[in-house]
Amino acid sequence: MTVELNFTHEAARRSWVESANEPVADFPLQNLPYGVCRQLGWPAPRIVAAIGDQVLDLAAASEAGLLPPTVAAACREPALNALMGLGAPAWSALRARLSELLGADTCPAGPSRAAAGRCLLPASPAAMLLPARIGGYTDFYASIFHATNVGSMFRPEAPLLPNYKWVPVGYHGRASSLVASGTAIRRPHGQLKDSTAAAPVFGPSRQLDYELELAAFVGPGNALGTPIPIRQAGDSLFGVGLLNDWSARDLQSWEYQPLGPFLAKNFATSLSPWVVTLEALAPFRRPAFTRPAGDPAPLPYLADPADQRLGGLDLTLEVFLLTAQMRADGAAPQRVSRGNFSVMYWTLAQLLAHHTSNGCNLQPGDVLGSGTVSGPEQDSRGCLLELTQRGAGPLTLPGGERRGFLHDGDEVILRGYAEQAGARRIGLGECRGIVLPAGP
Amino acid sequence: MTVELNFTHEAARRSWVESANEPVADFPLQNLPYGVCRQLGWPAPRIVAAIGDQVLDLAAASEAGLLPPTVAAACREPALNALMGLGAPAWSALRARLSELLGADTCPAGPSRAAAGRCLLPASPAAMLLPARIGGYTDFYASIFHATNVGSMFRPEAPLLPNYKWVPVGYHGRASSLVASGTAIRRPHGQLKDSTAAAPVFGPSRQLDYELELAAFVGPGNALGTPIPIRQAGDSLFGVGLLNDWSARDLQSWEYQPLGPFLAKNFATSLSPWVVTLEALAPFRRPAFTRPAGDPAPLPYLADPADQRLGGLDLTLEVFLLTAQMRADGAAPQRVSRGNFSVMYWTLAQLLAHHTSNGCNLQPGDVLGSGTVSGPEQDSRGCLLELTQRGAGPLTLPGGERRGFLHDGDEVILRGYAEQAGARRIGLGECRGIVLPAGP
Questions:
Q1: Chain A within 8 Å of B42 (Cβ-Cβ)?
Q2: Active site residue A407
Q3: Lowest-confidence range among A10-14, B350-354, B410-414?
Q4: Which pLDDT value is given to residue A6?
Q5: What does pTM read for this prediction?
């Protein structure tokens, strides 16, 4: 980790790709997130790094001999798994090289800049695929505010269960239905049972919701039977993106006991295209969430002083809605919530250490979803279930529309970024999905 | 499906591989299950079919031109996924061809038999790998006897939840920690909390258990957003094997609310090497479980007259224990339970139709676990939790040992077979795993 870098000096650096130097750009020289892109004429997808409104084709850069030998082969793969599997020293070497190649100071006009320039192409959100082959997708529940809010609706008598402050609660999601940002989401059918009805019926969900989450990508992973200790857990994560854990609340409340959510979630989960490395986010590391007085300390296998000091992330996360009517009216997406990842009860390192503490093996490219990122404020709640009290208090949108849950044609847009004085703004980009009507 | 075949004629057929004609052989000519095997000198694993105490190398058979063109390429793959993806007509064609090649009547001594004979090698359980790359593993809860027994221990006030008779309850398991039969299982660490303790501790599980399950392998699968209707669901499954869903009950009872089992299960799940096709099991199809009077009928998306008539499987499933002391004494494994798959409340077709009913996509080689197969009788309970009332009534083994839960050194052996008058016995083979002490 580069937390000892001189951030002020770093923050002042500019790229010769001028669009990267705009003050609100998501992808300045200090970010350099990775994604996977498909282009006409390419026989296979390629890894790219974002810089301003351009992307650097890492396959081409590798073939041109511009990249460190340790990562050259991994950068020619059609997905990020191999690079993720190389581990932190290789990630740092690649990042340093890209920063050098794209920096105005380190790569003046000349043959090197020209060689890098030949690997640039315009960014195109529609060309972006999932960043990795995701073998395992685990979803956690790491916001105590979310857990308390949701628990109060599903179990008013016991909103927060006794294990919450001890166990980083998680469950396995469905990897096959992870989709790239921009993929339309079909409203699912399922069993629906009103609390007053004697029997369920089968039909389209009437309580379709989103969940704003952070996705963390696993690096080298671990062999079955060999846990990753908490002190190594932070360095075992490659980077983060945005995740929308679409949820059918009516299916969920009827099906989820006793084995957890299933069809309420596995019809689709959206991922943003860009994986922002934890190195890029180093200036935005914060102490882990301060547990309220009286809460238990984490058990030793989840406790690490360095993680307590730097395991939090000061990342602002926002949700926007754009309805069909708003699109017809030419209206801009409306922000419906804004929260911050630093309020999470469990750090990413704790999630990973817990996951492997029984010997469960993680593999490069596996995704750990944080769970819905909700804070203590009303407008920091990361799903409609919480924002509208299960539809009882609908949102009012520009144009006068109201939303308890999502309608067909609604587009959900997640955005995330880190900002602070003395550091360059680092953006996560967007995760988008529009709701299609249920099938026949 | 070949349910219209003349079973009596089929049952009388013999193989020229003499060991396949033994009355209690698991792998007669009528079975022909598929697996994946590794041998010294082979650059990659190969698909094989079991016949008596031999296996037929399908890669070699394919290269020798012995197999139908539709399956020839899939049979040269290092796993069964491609063959599973081809669908029922291709599966039937391959099965018919293998039956012809290996039948004493259809393949008399001569060049064809000699060509097939050159593809035979002795079976070796230790050489068998997982039969497929398993992208998705879903575990169900389809025995109402298991659900009621377990519920009475975890939730005495509500043993069977209100959704059970409506929803084929399931959840996502961990695919990365599926292991081949014979892989040793390390006892997991985890959070343990006695009901009287104020706080959990972290340590090795003291309540390690097995679960006897049937694994069904998905065939071609479905695209995201396109459910598989119940009428097509039966033909969408390639075959079945045995699955041991190792479970740490102490971890499970503390962690499982509200999102379901996680670390209590994902440290390892064992699969048997042989996938027995549903075609081979056609003579053992039975009416689906008869729901007790007063139980609701399945909702229309789960109801199919053909599945009601033939969705049950008359498969005997057994669990054996072999402790370290028994091994030292030269004792044989001791059977601790025997049940039958025909008591399952939900059919395999219902599990698959439910899984895809919201559009969730299944892929070739995905595994659907049935959940613990327990029947109404005490000795048909498929896990120690049920057999010993959570350890309160331990089993007594030969030599006088007692078991509430598993000890280090215990080996669990699952076996399964179908038998009836007028049909050849069809065996599933074995699924074995021995418990290793917890790591440091």
A1: no
A2: no
A3: A10-14
A4: 56
A5: 0.97
Active-site residue, from A9, A146, A172, A407: A146
When pLDDT is averaged across residues B107-116 and rounded to a whole number, the result is 97
Instruction: Classify burial at A197, counting beta carbons within 10 Å of its beta carbon; exposed 0-12, middle 13-18, buried 19 or more.
Output: exposed
| pLDDT averaged over every residue in chain B | 96
Report yes or no: A27 and A304 within 8 Å, Cβ to Cβ: no
- The secondary structure element, H or E, covering residue A243 is strand A237-244
Q: Which of residues 358-417 of B touch A (CB under 8 A)?
A: 358-363, 366
Distance from the Cα of A403 to chain B's closest Cα (Å) equals 23
Enter the ipTM.
0.96
How high is the pLDDT of residue B7? 60
**Position B342 pLDDT exceeds 70:** yes
Q: How many CB atoms lie within 10 A of CB A133?
A: 16
Which residues of chain B make contact with A161, given a CB cutoff of 8 A?
257-258
